[in-house]
Amino acid sequence: MTNPVLQIPIIDLQTFATGDELERQTIVDRVYQACHEIGFLYIKNSGISSHLIQQLFTHSQQFFNLPLEAKNQIAWLDESHNSGYVGIERERLDPKQPGDLKEALNLNLKSIAQNPDFSTEFHSCALNSWKACVQITDIILQTFAMALQIPEDFFIANHNAQAHTLRLLHYPPLEQPPKQGQVRAGEHSDYGSITLLFQDDIGGLEVQTKNGEWIAAPAIPDTIIVNTGDLMQRWTNHVFCSTKHRVAIPTDEKMKRSRYSIAFFCHPNDDTEVACLPGCCTDRVAMYPSISAKDYLISRLQATY
Ligand SMILES: O=C(O)CCC(=O)C(=O)O
Ligand SMILES: [Fe+2]
Hints:
Bound molecules: 2-oxoglutaric acid, fe (ii) ion
InterPro entries: DIOX_N, IPNS-like_FE2OG_OXY, IPNS-like_sf, Iron_ascorbate_oxido_reductase, Oxoglu/Fe-dep_dioxygenase_dom
GO molecular function: metal ion binding; oxidoreductase activity
Family: Belongs to the iron/ascorbate-dependent oxidoreductase family.
Keywords: Iron, Metal-binding, Oxidoreductase
Protein name: 2OG-Fe(II) oxygenase
CATH topology: Jelly Rolls
């Protein structure tokens, strides 16, 4: 078997800010190719501090170690806020299957700033991580605009309200066999424009290729996984694809260990009308009607909770 990891490219962003035009264009071309053909890439030299992310993982472990009653004090309540604690099996990313074997804490800018239950350290770590993720997604959004030959700040301007979600995820150790069809995270595509994913070394993340096979997307040191979501796919009329992925249960000893990951779901502003970009419907007709980013997100969350 060839190494499936190699199908997802690793793109170095080091010279995007500092390089000459040719170096920048090379990065843009590689990002375009990855998002067009696979919808997934690894980035390295993103500029984020690995120490910061490590700290966020530590806070995540501390949070999920709290008793259930404490976590439920800040339970996720509704789609329009989309923040708070989501218990095990509550979410079904694949609505045809049993609930996911995971728990999550969804954070947005408001809940990071205002939640009195978080320690000062947790608060500042989450806020700094948020800011770092915004910087990275802004760079990626700029490469997207360059790749599509639209004004470089087009996507950035449509994301400046920071309607994103920072999500801490914990997949508990498995004490008993899962239900039929149950996995750690059911197969799905993400809802927004771009997702950044940080994961530990337990593994299990799988990505579906165009011919339907599932390939592993393991953690690669000092990289972040980036994938394009459904709204970006709609906006670009499938020039950038939103690819199905899932988190499988390890078949070995690792199933008895916790898995932790952190996702940053980058979303357009609530009132952004996501309609096919003019340059993306010259070869084929627009596949979707226009929809506001907020209405789209709410409809997708309603289907999974
Ligand atoms: O935990 C992971 O590795 C992936 C999680 C995921 O795909 C999601 O929450 O959308
Ligand atoms: Fe996902």
